[in-house]
Amino acid sequence: MAFYLAGPGVWSLVLLLWGSFLVPSPTVVVARNAKRGIASAPSDYQALDLMKLESTSQASWVYNWNDYPPQSVPRGLEYVPMQWGEENIGNLKSRIQHTGAKVLLAFNEPDIPSQSNLSPETAAQLWKRYIQPLKWQYGIRLGSPAVANVQSRWLKDFISACTGCTIDFLVIHWYGQGADNFIHMLKGAHQEFPNYKIWVTEWADTTMNDPAVVQTFLEQTTHYMDSQPWLERYSWFAYTRQTDGLGMQSSMPSSFIPINAICSIEMAISMHWAGFTSIEPSTEF
């Protein structure tokens, strides 16, 4: 899973929350946004927190960096599996049969040594052997490997090496600061690959401990993606909360962990462990 991420010359740890939104009453069902997804990272409360999304979230789909679903996927949310890397790829077909998934995400950040770490050629070979047959047998939609840097040559080299492959959409990740920089990256990706729809399955502002900046970034980037017909889906990194069982969170002091959320219950949770006491979540987003 993509918890330790490479920034430009440094490694950045980003824990972010993306979840249920304030509504006048917990009994009111919020309209779903077909693009918006939940990147559900593991925690001791994963199942409980996912169930909060059933009536209070605009999200329409969820993924968890695995090829099998978390313990409890709320009604109304589509589960999208991922083949994270090469390990256990021989079991992928049976997993797809079991879940009945209609969409599959491929390798997670293969262009980073600490993630799935695959060359474009190796990824193409694995795709042809294990992933492409799922398109022929089940008609499943296939997402490209999720690259950490769409501006590198990795994705172009993969597409060139994967002759005869059906890639229904491209998957990209982005971490940095500033909505303008994020939007510039997306525009560049669309210009580079104009024939593909794009999913952003991880993105976040890495501004530390400034919720107002992060909230503005989140609103601006989400508005942009909602307005682009070629931007098919997105999921903010990530829907989770701190527990002792997650080394990626407990290994850093709370003053170092960014609080990136505009939500209701999740905001209160994240405020508690990040040490913020005066943040008010948006009532509109």
Automatic annotation (TrEMBL):
<protein>
    <recommendedName>
        <fullName>Asl1-like glycosyl hydrolase catalytic domain-containing protein</fullName>
    </recommendedName>
</protein>
<dbReference type="InterPro" id="IPR017853">
    <property type="entry name" value="GH"/>
</dbReference>
<keyword id="KW-0732">Signal</keyword>
<feature type="domain" description="Asl1-like glycosyl hydrolase catalytic">
    <location>
        <begin position="53"/>
        <end position="252"/>
    </location>
</feature>
<dbReference type="GO" id="GO:0071966">
    <property type="term" value="P:fungal-type cell wall polysaccharide metabolic process"/>
</dbReference>
<dbReference type="InterPro" id="IPR053183">
    <property type="entry name" value="ASL1"/>
</dbReference>
<feature type="signal peptide">
    <location>
        <begin position="1"/>
        <end position="31"/>
    </location>
</feature>
<dbReference type="InterPro" id="IPR024655">
    <property type="entry name" value="Asl1_glyco_hydro_catalytic"/>
</dbReference>
<dbReference type="Pfam" id="PF11790">
    <property type="entry name" value="Glyco_hydro_cc"/>
</dbReference>
<dbReference type="GO" id="GO:0009277">
    <property type="term" value="C:fungal-type cell wall"/>
</dbReference>
